[in-house]
Amino acid sequence: MESITMIVALLVPNFLMGIGITAAVIMLLTIAAGLYRQLAYLPKFFWQYPMSYISFTAWAVQGQYKNDVIGLEFEPWVPGQPKLKGERILETDLGVNSNHSKWWDLAALFHIFVSQGCFLYGTKIQGQSSIAIAQALCQTEF
């Protein structure tokens, strides 16, 4: 979240706009995580495919669910029925795809953080170089 805040701070002109836009971006990424509604019930065009893949919250929540639920057995809803497997709870109740492991989620989360850091660093270097060029061009001798 801090890297998103820093990226937004570099792109907006004042402090209040930065706070508002950062809150909006983090809210959009949290909606795409599947915390409030299952990902299958969100519209596919915007929320499922681009937003859920770039949302660090989605990868973190899915990895945490897999870490907590896979391998466990739960009591059934109706007494006397067989116990429920954690994989079934993961896919039906939580709406998380269990085709890949929690380590893939962790690797995707690490990749997102590294790419955000590289983007932030590149934007910062570009901003510093443009300031240096502007100062060099503005220096005139009378």
From TrEMBL:
Keywords from UniProt, A to Z, are: Membrane, Transmembrane, Transmembrane helix, Transport
Transmembrane segments annotated in the record for this chain: 15-36
Keyword field contains Transmembrane: yes
UniProt superkingdom: Eukaryota
> What protein family is recorded?
Belongs to the ABC transporter superfamily. ABCG family. Eye pigment precursor importer (TC 3.A.1.204) subfamily.
Q: What PANTHER family does this protein's entry cite?
A: ABC TRANSPORTER G FAMILY MEMBER 11, ABC-2 TYPE TRANSPORTER TRANSMEMBRANE DOMAIN-CONTAINING PROTEIN
What this protein is called in its record is ABC-2 type transporter domain-containing protein
